[in-house]
From TrEMBL:
<feature type="transmembrane region" description="Helical">
    <location>
        <begin position="12"/>
        <end position="31"/>
    </location>
</feature>
<keyword id="KW-0813">Transport</keyword>
<keyword id="KW-0143">Chaperone</keyword>
<dbReference type="InterPro" id="IPR001708">
    <property type="entry name" value="YidC/ALB3/OXA1/COX18"/>
</dbReference>
<keyword id="KW-0472">Membrane</keyword>
<protein>
    <recommendedName>
        <fullName>Membrane protein insertase YidC</fullName>
    </recommendedName>
</protein>
<feature type="region of interest" description="Disordered">
    <location>
        <begin position="274"/>
        <end position="367"/>
    </location>
</feature>
<keyword id="KW-0653">Protein transport</keyword>
<dbReference type="GO" id="GO:0015031">
    <property type="term" value="P:protein transport"/>
</dbReference>
<dbReference type="Pfam" id="PF02096">
    <property type="entry name" value="60KD_IMP"/>
</dbReference>
<dbReference type="InterPro" id="IPR028055">
    <property type="entry name" value="YidC/Oxa/ALB_C"/>
</dbReference>
<feature type="transmembrane region" description="Helical">
    <location>
        <begin position="178"/>
        <end position="198"/>
    </location>
</feature>
<comment type="subunit">
    <text>Interacts with the Sec translocase complex via SecD. Specifically interacts with transmembrane segments of nascent integral membrane proteins during membrane integration.</text>
</comment>
<dbReference type="GO" id="GO:0032977">
    <property type="term" value="F:membrane insertase activity"/>
</dbReference>
<feature type="transmembrane region" description="Helical">
    <location>
        <begin position="218"/>
        <end position="242"/>
    </location>
</feature>
<comment type="similarity">
    <text>Belongs to the OXA1/ALB3/YidC family. Type 1 subfamily.</text>
</comment>
<feature type="transmembrane region" description="Helical">
    <location>
        <begin position="37"/>
        <end position="58"/>
    </location>
</feature>
């Protein structure tokens, strides 16, 4: 029983994409039969697959940023349950972690989705290239449009002297081994720089600390090592595919990180510096304190202030009568005499010039 039998539909799709890309290159002027057109058809396969995966790529970027933003809260949860190994604490920690993922709308597996979806295509291409010799000999059935004649042409196509179906451990030709070794190094280097670009330049400082950051740094070196060990069993065509898809990922991530960096990351700082230089070149000067323009509208009417109310009088008290208030006698001054001695003390006959005396005040009423 073939364990990889479930890959048969994917192998059929991969075979048709390669064949149609080859026919398109022949239409553009490339030679039919063995030649660089079949090598470039693998590159065309990468381009088509990665274009189809662009929506997942943006989901990957969003999930990665979400994981970066929740790192402080994740560290708080880990600190809260540090040293607690009882089942109840572990269950509570897992529950709070899942609630945190739901709150930020992300999960740790979303960032790996493009790689996981490419894995079946990777293994399908691996099986197609490994089956070229049996198909060309007529011992295996054709895969889609790849019959014995087409399989013979693909197998005879080479990259710097190394055929697409050659494997490092199955060839004795020195030139072929050198070419395959260079492709393995290129595959591992592009894998390393792709992961480093995503983790180091597009992550805030808070996300570069903690257990998850340590795991990501470890995986930064583990993946290239795994590809270096397993690359000696890959056909040349698979090495071309993986190196090309890594180069595509590097370019795609470079564009995304440059235009839409994660908040607080090194890439965001570089973006702000570029924007400042562009504004300075255009002569735009930024104000230190931005002026906030108040909205214009109907003039606000002044509010009426309530007058202070008099304190209520105690019960049982009466308002005093004016006549009951004692009146004190005002002092009486004599009017000055005129120079000719004609002044009198009569208030009715007095004149303003002579200073008439004031009338006497009323006497105090006797009760």
């Amino acid at each position: 029983m073939d364990f990889f039998a479930f890959l048969a539909p994917i192998e059929w799709v991969v075979a048709w994409i390669m064949y149609l890309c080859h026919q398109g290159l022949v239409f553009l002027g490339f030679s039919d039969g063995p030649g660089p057109a079949w090598v470039l058809s693998i590159v065309g396969l990468v381009i088509i697959i990665r274009i189809l995966l662009i929506p997942l790529f943006f989901k990957q970027i969003k999930a990665s940023r979400g994981m970066q933003m929740l790192q402080p809260e994740m560290q708080a949860i880990q600190k809260k349950y540090k040293g607690k190994t009882d089942p109840a604490s572990r269950e509570a920690m897992s529950r709070e972690t899942m609630d945190l993922y739901r709150k930020h709308g992300t999960n740790p597996f979303a960032s790996c989705m493009p790689i996981l979806l490419q894995s079946p295509i990777f293994f399908a291409l691996f099986r197609v290239l490994n089956g070229l010799v049996p198909i060309s000999n007529g011992t295996d059935d054709p895969i889609g449009p790849i019959n014995s004649a087409v399989a013979s042409d693909i197998e005879s196509s080479s990259v710097f002297g190394a055929q697409l179906s050659d494997v490092f451990l199955r060839t004795d030709d020195l030139q072929t081994k050198i070419v395959i070794a260079v492709l393995i190094v290129a595959m591992c280097a592009t894998t390393f720089f792709t992961q480093r670009q995503l983790t180091m330049k597009n992550m805030p400082k808070a996300a570069l600390e903690g257990p998850m950051a340590s795991t990501q740094k470890m995986m930064l070196y583990v993946f290239p090592f795994i590809f270096a060990v397993s690359g000696v069993n890959f056909p040349v065509g698979v090495l071309v595919y993986w190196t090309t898809t890594n180069l595509w990922s590097m370019g795609q991530q470079f564009y995304t990180i440059r235009r839409m960096p994660a908040p607080g990351s090194e890439a965001e700082r570089l973006l702000k510096e570029r924007q400042a230089r562009k504004r300075a070149a255009k002569g735009v000067v930024e104000d230190a304190t931005p002026v906030i323009e108040q909205p214009r509208g109907q003039r606000q009417q002044p509010k009426r202030k309530d007058r202070q109310k008099a304190a209520p009088r105690p019960v049982g008290t009466t308002t005093p009568n004016v006549d009951d208030v004692p009146v004190e006698d005002a002092p009486v001054e004599d009017a000055p005499k005129a120079a000719d001695g004609s002044g009198t003390n009569d208030g009715a006959k007095g004149s303003p010039a002579t200073g008439a005396s004031k009338p006497a005040p009323k006497k105090k009423k006797q009760k």
